[in-house]
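Quick illustration, no need to memorize.
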Amino acid sequence: MNIRLIIKNLSIVICIEALCMLLPFFIALLYGQNDAKAFLFSALITLCAGLLMFRIKVKTNNFYIRDGFAVVALSWILVSVFGSLPFLFSGAIT
């Protein structure tokens, strides 16, 4: 199992999620809602986490089936965790 390659692939997923969080941020700004800060902070935290994970050096690019299953399973977990940040920051979830 190539842990470094798994983390590198997870970082790409996390960075894409951070970019997707910018759309609700701009919509919240457009409608003048108070949740804009929550989406901006969540996107910045998610992007920073993704970029930090992306800096890991990969020794080999051999990607096996087990690595693919790990990337998919961990992607679902990380997207859920980082996707819940706007709800925590806005106070929708206490």
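Residues 36-54 form the longest helix (19 residues).
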